[in-house]
Amino acid sequence: MSTIxxxxxxxxxxxxxxxxxxxxxxxxxxxxxxxxxxxxxxxxAFLTSLTKANVFRTIRFVGVDNYEKILTDDPVFATIAKxxxxxxxxxxxxxxxxxxxLALLLQKDFRGNHVFRTVLYVPSLLxxxxxxxxxxxxxxxxxxxLANMFLGLAGxxxxxxxxxxxxxxxxxxxxxxxxxxxxxxxxxxFLAGLKGIPATYFExxxxxxxxxxxxxxxxxxxxxxxxxxxxxxxxxxxHIQVFETPLAFAxxxxxxxxxxxxxxxxxxxxxxxxxxxxxxYQDMGYASALAFIxxxxxxxxxxxxxxxxxRFTAYGDAERN
Amino acid sequence: xxxxxxxxxxTLLTLFSLLLLFPFAWLVSQSLKDTNQYFAVPFxxxxxxxxWSNFADVVFRYNFLHYIWNSLWLAGYAVFVNIxxxxxxxxxxxxxxxxxxxxxxxxVLATMMLPGQIMMxxxxxxxxxxxxxxxxxxxxIPKLFGSAFExxxxxxxxxxxxxxxxxxxxxxxxxxxxxxxxxILPQSKPVIIVVAVFTFLGSWRELFGPLIYLTGDENxxxxxxxxxxxxxxxxxxxxxxxxxxxxxxxxxVLYVLGQRYIDKGVAIAxxx
Lengths: 321, 272
Fold this sequence. Notes:
The complex is a heterodimer of chains A (321) and B (272). Chain A has 321 residues and is an all-alpha fold.
C-alpha cells in the first residue's frame, strides 16, 4: 500500500496513479464492451419483446402478449418445450455420468493413461456443425448409417433415426446420443477436481476398510461436489442452447430448404425456434420473448441445481460425523 | 484384486475409445469414396478407388478454399485481439483495488450464463440500421473488448504470479502499462497458449453469428459453407464428408501443439 501522510493532500498526479483510477483504466475495454454489446442490446431486446411488428414494419406495443402466446397458445413451442425437457435431461445425464465415469477410470496413474485421456478428450474439441453433419450421416436411415450398421450386427433392423413419422422421439434419442462423443470436456474438469482431493483421505478410508463403492460414495463424491455442481450448471447451459446439431439434423441441403425444426418439429430446440422466428420470419418481438423465456428457464434450472447441491452434498455430514 | 481392477479399467477404456474413434474412421473412409461406393451395402472400409479428388473438388470447385480462408483469418484475428484485450482487462481485475471490483468481476462471470442470442437479436437490428449486415464488422468489433471466459482464465493465472516482481519493477520506475507488457505477459505463456487455442476453436466453429450477420456467398465461413452445401449433381454426401474432414484438421493439430498447456489450462480454470 502506498504510504501517504494523512495530512498531505493528494495531487491530481497521485490521484491519476491511484489504484482506483488505474483499475478502471484497465477494465475499461470490458466495461465499454459490456455496456454496448451487453446491457444496451439486452434492454433493447426486452423492450422489443413487448412489441409486435406488422408486415409494414410498424411497431406496436403489446405488453406481455408475446410471452402469453408462447406459453399458452403456441403448439410449436409446446412441442419444443417437451423436446427440450427430454433433450436437456438426457444429455446432461450423458455428459455428467459419462464424464464422471471416465474421470474415475483415469483417476489413477497407469501406463497408457495419457493416450486414453487424449483419445477421449479430443472429440469434445470438435463439437460444431462439422461433427453435426458427421453424426447426421452416422444416424442415417437405411443400412448405410454407421449406427444402423452396428444395430445390424446385433440383428436389429435399420432404424429410421431422423425421419420416423411414427416415432419422432427417435430423432431426439440420436441428438442425445451425439453427446456421448463430447463427454471428454466434462471428464477433463472432473479429472482436475479429482487431482485436487488429497490422497490422505483415500488412504484413511482404505485403512478403515472402505470398499470401492463406499470410497466413491463417502469420500470422492462429497469432496468432488463443488466440481460436480459447476460442471452440471455449465453442461445445462450448453444443452439448453443447443443449435448446430439439431439444425444440421433437420436440414436437407441448404438452410433455405426444409424445415429447420425437423419432421413435425421433432428436432426443434429453443435456439433453432428462435432462429426461425427471428431471422426467417423476422418476428423480432416474438423471438426476443423466446430468448427471455429461455434465459429465465436457465436461471431456474441453475437455482434448482444449487438448491439440490446444498441439500444433498455431504459437507455438513462430513463435519458432523 | 489390484490387477483385476486394472484389467477392467483397460477393457472399459479401450472399448469406449474405440467407440469414440469409430465414427471418425468411418468419416475418413466415406470422404474418400464416390457416391456409389458411399451407399454400398455391405459397407467397405477401404475405398476402391480412393477418391482423393473429393478433397480437390470441395476445395476448388465448391469454393471451400474461400470459406476456409475467411474462417482462418477470422480465427487468427480473434486469437490475436483476444489475447491482448482479455489479458489487459484481467490485469486490471487482478492487480488493482478499486471500488466495485468484486461486483464487476461477478458480472463478468455472470455474462457467461446469458444466452448470446438475446443480445444478437437487437444487435442484428442495429447492424442492419448502420449497414453492417453482410460485412465482417459484427464479428470483428465486439472481440476488441475482451471476452468473459478468457478474462477469467487470465485473472486466475495472474493471481498466482508472484507480486514481488511487479513491486520491484514499480520501484524501478516501471509504469503499470509497461509492467503488464514487459513483466506480466512474458510470464504468462501457458495461459496465453490456452486462451489462443480456446479462442481459435470458438471462432472456428462459430455458427449463429455468421449465419445471421453474413448473407452473401463471398463472406461465408467454413461452417456456413457446410451448412449451405448443395451440389448441382444431387446428393453427394462424400464431398460433404470431405469438407467435414478438412474442418476437423485445424482443431486436432492445435490440440496436439498445445496439449501440454491445455491440461494445465483446465487446472487454471478450476473454480477457486
